[in-house]
């Protein structure tokens, strides 16, 4: 029994999972939101029929968004997460003792509400005293911030609907202004198999603003093609020049200090997107 759901990547290819039951299916003010129980991946959050996260493989994405910039920066104290309403990136950010305050700005309060209810292992740290949760547009928050953050992570949906502005050069310029003089930012950048043009464009735009621009990869089975890209922009610190002693012991399932460096090793067809 159960029904099969397919996230179509193109008219000819998609990623499919068996759904045991649907907890929530509603149109919020910003997007279609589904919270379902899958047969293979635990509970899964979908926005506009795209997989956002699942209980079984969420750790890869959340660890790789958080720990690469947070170990690259020598002393991250003030952190901003744009999007990320499921709370997974925040959970990872809080593993860094240097972090005094983490602000999360997601445009859709319903994502936060349902994630707390149906994804407690992911959203469980959103109530932590070091965390401030704001419901609002990340683009506006960035536009209003100056010299405020050591690290900014953009954990957004794909560039459709409310996230379109989060993939523009104007947004990256705003991020640069919102960061301190030695700040670092990371943004999820979709996948090189089907979104090569997007990745190429983001690389070009970020390069014009940040002196250090790097792409890194992770394997995420429930995202289309399984190969996921992240763009890092840094004003001062290079992610490949992190000294050994900087890697404090934290509890992870994907990220290690070896993965930190290895994730920047790109297959040729991905390297070509960064030129
Ligand atoms: N990890 C996922 C992926 O790569 O598919 C994305 C996670 S999901 C939690 C992304 C979040 O970005 C959603 O909760 C959505 O509401 C939020 N979002 C989209 N546009 C936004 C904006 N302009 N400002 C703040 N949050 C936004």
Automatic annotation (TrEMBL):
The keyword Transferase applies. PROSITE patterns: PABS_1, PABS_2. Spermidine binds at residues 62, 86, 155-158. Keywords: Polyamine biosynthesis, Spermidine biosynthesis, Transferase. It catalyses: S-adenosyl 3-(methylsulfanyl)propylamine + putrescine = S-methyl-5'-thioadenosine + spermidine + H(+). Catalyzes the irreversible transfer of a propylamine group from the amino donor S-adenosylmethioninamine (decarboxy-AdoMet) to putrescine (1,4-diaminobutane) to yield spermidine. This is Polyamine aminopropyltransferase. It comes from Gracilibacillus marinus. The gene is speE.
């Amino acid at each position: 029994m159960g029904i099969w759901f397919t996230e179509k990547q193109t008219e000819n290819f998609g990623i499919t999972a068996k759904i045991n039951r649907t907890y929530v299916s509603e149109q919020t003010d910003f997007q279609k939101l589904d919270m379902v129980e899958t047969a293979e991946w635990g509970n899964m959050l979908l926005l506009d029929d795209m997989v956002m996260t699942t209980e079984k493989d969420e750790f890869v994405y959340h660890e790789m968004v958080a720990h690469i910039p947070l170990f690259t920066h020598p002393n991250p104290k003030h952190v901003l997460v744009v999007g990320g309403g499921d709370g997974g990136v925040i959970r990872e950010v809080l593993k860094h003792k240097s972090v005094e305050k983490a602000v999360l700005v997601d445009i859709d309060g319903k994502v936060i509400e349902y994630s707390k209810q149906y994804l407690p292992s992911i959203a469980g740290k959103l109530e932590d005293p070091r965390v401030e949760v704001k419901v609002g547009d990340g683009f506006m928050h960035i536009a209003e911030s100056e010299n405020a953050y050591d690290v900014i992570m953009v954990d957004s949906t794909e560039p459709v609907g409310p996230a379109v502005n989060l993939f523009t050069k104007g947004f990256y310029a705003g991020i640069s202004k919102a960061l301190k003089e030695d700040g670092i930012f990371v943004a999820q950048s979709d996948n090189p198999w089907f979104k090569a043009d997007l990745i190429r464009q983001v690389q070009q735009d970020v390069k014009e603003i940040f002196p250090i621009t790097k792409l890194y990869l992770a394997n995420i089975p429930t995202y289309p093609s399984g190969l996921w890209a992240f763009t890092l922009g840094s004003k001062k610190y290079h992610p490949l020049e992190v000294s050994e002693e900087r890697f404090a012991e934290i509890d992870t399932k994907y990220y290690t200090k070896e993965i930190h460096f290895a994730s920047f090793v790109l297959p040729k067809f991905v390297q070509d997107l960064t030129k």
